[in-house]
Amino acid sequence: MELLLALAGVVATLVLAQPCEGTAPASPMAVETSVLQDCVKEAKLLVDAAYNRTQESIKQRLRSGSASPRDLLFYFKQPVAATRTIVQAADYMHVALGLLEEKLQLQGSSSFNVTDVLTESQLWLLSKASGCVVQSQEEKCRNDYRTITGRCNNRRRPSLGASNTALARWLPAQYEDGLSLPFGWTPGKRRNGFLLPLVRAVSNQIVRFPRERLASDQGRALMFMQWGQFIDHDLDFVPESPARVAFTAGVDCEKTCAQLPPCFPIKIPPNDPRIKNQRDCIPFSRSAPSCPRKNVIRNQINALTSFLDASMVYGSEVSLAQRLRNRTNFHGLLATNERFSDNGRALMPFDNLHDDPCLLTNRSARIPCFLAGQTGGWGGGVS
């Protein structure tokens, strides 16, 4: 036992003393806290720069009127308010871990999980420095009623189903590196002995359906689908990453086919029916992450409450809920549009956006975007 303790003491002295830009031992067993702090500082600079470049690019396109349909979709799928703050903190954490892992791999370290070389106190420091520790603090339920964020709807588990928390999973998330990279990230890497097909090839083979075999559903109208979509917008919304610029390389995701987080371009398979250039790709960005609660394994954020509570009408954040209310009296009613109505029926109020993308739909009418309980666009998959 004493021998084992002595060996452990020797191993513990093998630390990384260099800054994040320096070098590291080939077999990392421990990391100096200062090294981790340097990686967090660098991560914040990289993430902030990517966020700012993306935001300025979108603003310029909106102001010039050159925004594409993809730009508009990206705009409406952006995290806002508290959601954006949490996503930014999570990006700080994941980029910092990526920088640290890259530093270790440059020295020829064998395959390892970067979190295995960090102590519990260092993981807590990482969470605190990134801003995630604030988001993970439990809230005490002092009110008899649930909040607009969904917190305290379950008093035993106050954060259950609350907005701006990680998606609930029946099974734990699985990644290529066990931490963050999705399967299919590394070309040629097998899963259970098999190569993963390109996602575009899967779409071409399964989703495509011959037009001549299409038939109208005799039992359901299109409203059946629309109602399902409406309910879905009450339960979940996973925004895209706020960055369309690679964090570490600074490359625009729309101008590269390289896989550089958060850029995850869709590769073109042979004999694609629409895109003939196989060296081309379809720009795609990963879903926005949430701040981890128990470990640093990546999970996606749900910006809405998970309850069937009409949050797409009333909002999932206090600030938005207050904007949706008529504050001119104490009746507690929702605000309505002061300029237009639908044959006497109330319409939603207009939003007050500095660069309003809805103005592009009809430049002469100058109709701005409406304001509702869900500010994001159509839902999608997660990555």
Outline? globular
SSE-based structural type: mainly alpha
% residues in beta strands: under 5%
Number of strands: 8
Largest pleated sheet: 2 strands, antiparallel
Keywords: Oxidoreductase, Peroxidase, Signal
Protein name: Eosinophil peroxidase isoform X2
Pfam families: An_peroxidase (PF03098)
GO biological process, one term: response to oxidative stress
Description:
By secondary structure, this protein is mostly helical. The chain has one domain (about 15-190, about 230-360). The protein has 10 helices and 8 strands. Strands 1-6 form a two-stranded antiparallel sheet. Strand 7 (about 340) and strand 8 form a beta hairpin. Helix 2 packs across helix 4 and helix 4 crosses helix 5. The model is unreliable at about 1-20 and about 25 (pLDDT under 50).
Strand and helix map with partners:
Layout: H1 2-12, H2 33-64, H3 69-76, H4 81-105, H5 120-130, H6 132-135, E1 165-166, E2 190-191, E3 194-195, H7 199-207, H8 222-235, E4 266-267, E5 281-282, E6 301-302, H9 311-314, H10 318-323, E7 341-342, E8 345-346
Antiparallel strand pairs: 1-6, 2-3, 4-5, 7-8
Helix pairs in contact: 2-4, 2-5, 4-5
Concise structural overview:
With 383 residues, the protein is mainly α. The chain is 32% helix and 4% strand. The chain is globular and about 70 Å long.
